[in-house]
Amino acid sequence: MKFASSALFIAPLLAFIGTTAAIPSPADAVSGVKTKIEQLVNARGSDELLVARAPVTGTVNADAVRYRRCPNTSSACDPIGQYNRGQRITIICRAIGETVNGWSWWDRMDNGWWISDYYVDWTGGVPDVCP
């Protein structure tokens, strides 16, 4: 009987896990974070941090990445929709929000919604910090 009750608990959990977005490997995550840190360090020494910059282009780096009303995954910030790998987005600024896979930055897109920066590769510079 213990097996049957365990199976009843685990079956829905396995079904849920199968429907969520693939999680990048730890090596991919470390590589992505290192790239972003390099971009920030390289920008720090230049005058570009002293002036407002134009929006930055980004590319979503995973499938089924949800974008939200605010920079966290709570029920108050219900997902609005989702993007798949390769989707190009425009980032107007970034802010600290809920930590996702060890990364706390969230990107505000030109459509007003937020996406976890963990799932975005910048392709046009370093986004400003939101005011």
From TrEMBL:
Residues 1-22 form the signal peptide. Keywords: Signal. This is SH3 domain-containing protein.
